[in-house]
Here is the input.
Amino acid sequence: MPGRLAQGFEPEELLRLFNARAGDLEGAGPRWNSAPTHRLMAVRKDPQSGENALDLLRWGLVPHFAKDMKGGASLINARSETVSSTAPFRDAWAKKRRCLIPLKGYYEWRGEKGAKQPLAIALASKEPMALAGLWENWKDKESGLWLRTFTLLTCEPNSAIAEFHHRMPVIVLAEHQTGWLAGEDAAGLLKPIASKLLDIRPVGTAVNKVGNEGEELWNRISQSTSIFGRETI
Here is the structure.
């Protein structure tokens, strides 16, 4: 159940990879330590044209019926088993407002509180990792401005992730991405991918601070240089 993401791509790379048109991309660029409420590049079907569109969406779904946007910070993930019946998500699910969040990967932490080792989780193939999401529109009644937000779908973990977390994001492999965005039956996708498809490696503790940024956060470190979650010299 990720709470920190690495989206280390330039918009042009994702536009080409997903054969998408550019939407709202003002300020878009590589981010290596994204947290809830940050804006990330997402691929979705444009409701009018049916084309793939790449837009910046805010992480943390704000339901269309919400009085304000405050609750979005806590709605960063949705359980795939109950998403169709959970009030904040069921409308987006029913209307097939699906999206993909393309990433280098995401971060998790292993160990006891106060001694946690951050881990980078990526595809072993080194391909971009696409997480399944739902998006929603919300209108601020005072300003009249629209906000577009998303949540990530989660599922039971595979054996590798289960060693340190009870949930994992739904990862949509390349061969299923077109069908996911098109709204095809998703029952077979809302499950963990095989452990062997993942590369899980330790990274430095600088990623613990949300304000830290840069590609160096994604670099592997030797376990011998990390003791109880604290880097040594």
